Amino acid sequence: MIDLHCHSVFSDGTKTPAEIVRMADSKRIRHIALTDHDTVAGLPDFFAAKGNAERIAGTEISIDFSPGTMHVVGLFIDYKSAELTAKLGELLIARKERNDSMLKEVSRLVDREITENEVSTSNLGELGRPHIAKFLIREGVVADMEEAFDKYLAKGKPIYRERKRFSFEESAEMIHAAGGITILAHPFSMRLEKDAYLPYIKGMTDKGLDAVETYCSYHSEEDTLFFNDLTKKLGLPVSAGSDYHGENKTNVKLGKWNCRLHNPENVLYALRKKAEQYR
Ligand code: AMP
Ligand code: FE
Ligand code: FE
Ligand code: ZN
Q1: Where is each Polymerase/histidinol phosphatase N-terminal domain found (predicted)?
Q2: What is the rounded distance in angstroms from the CA atom of residue 137 to the CA atom of residue 160?
């Protein structure tokens, strides 16, 4: 088995990179990619961890897009690249500024000054909305993650703040410059009309899209088959990733999604092949 999309404590997951490697081994996942949001900070630990699973360097970039959300996973990246670190640094600074602003809103809500450390001490990267959601649950303001997002944290809700995002072109350029390939993650989250997906994704291939994550926990079996058909028409390789977030998304399991993947090694082979052109 493979899992080419998951998150650690370096973004909004709850497991350390080393724990993820151990879990991969216990689930017989032979190849695993760590793809924390907007960062490569967890990758040194990921590669240093003891374990048998082959490690693949990745990151996941949130793209400036509407109506839904567009995420692009970069795989096989040179995570030590100075240009990549500098470029991701822009997002890190933007996230810090946004967190300051969101924490002011949280402080108003609970009527006392809330610091980053109070929200989370277990994460090793920059805070994200899921950390704030869990804080609101602990405070008894909301019952669960869903309520936290519905009432306060989703786009347009009181605590939500926009943050700087890259365009798809800018992200693709950054990932390719670091030797990686670009994968459109969980495309269903873009919330386009069904008929609009084929022309839209075709347009993205002209702008540097290399593959589409069709197997993922966000997709129903029907969605996966729909996107498999679409990628076939476009001649694009597919990818497969759980988008594991540990206890932050309890219904998502490492190495699991809703549609059977029969040839994981072939999927990985095709993606690797695609990466050769960026070396
Ligand atoms: P951020 O990077 O801080 O904008 O937070 C984005 C994270 O929040 C993503 O990992 C999502 O999985 C999570 N998220 C976004 N919307 C929701 C939602 N409605 N319910 C639960 N988690 C969400
Ligand atoms: Fe996330
Ligand atoms: Fe994502
Ligand atoms: Zn993800």
Answers
A1: 2-65
A2: 17
User: First and final CA of the chain: distance in angstroms?
Assistant: 26
- The residue segments making up the domain with residue 224 are 2-88+181-278
Q: Is residue 155 part of a domain?
A: no
Residues 6+ apart with CB under 8 A from 222: none
Q: Is residue 111 part of a domain?
A: no
Kindly identify the ligand whose nearest atom is closest to the C-alpha of 72. 3
Domain-located, residue 245: yes
Tokens of 44: 């040194």
pLDDT of residue 99: 96
CA of residue 38 to ligand 3 center, whole Å: 11
Q: What is the pLDDT of residues 100-145, one digit of tens each?
A: 999 999 999 999 999 999 998 888 888 999 999 999 999 999 999 9
Residue 172 domain flag = no
The protein residue with its alpha carbon nearest to ligand 1, atom 13, reads 130
pTM for the whole structure: 0.95
Query: What's the total number of domains in the chain?
Result: 1
Nearest to 63, CA basis, from 189, 235, 180, 149 = 189
Confidence bin at 248 (pLDDT 50/70/90): confident
Distance 200 CA to ligand 2 centre (A): 24
Which residues contact residue 219 at a Cβ distance below 8 angstroms, ignoring those fewer than 6 apart? 186, 188, 227, 257, 258, 259
10-66: per-residue pLDDT in tens?
A: 999 999 999 999 999 999 999 999 999 999 999 999 999 999 999 999 999 999 999
Beta strands 70-75 and 54-63 are antiparallel
Closest ligand by atom to 14 CA: 2
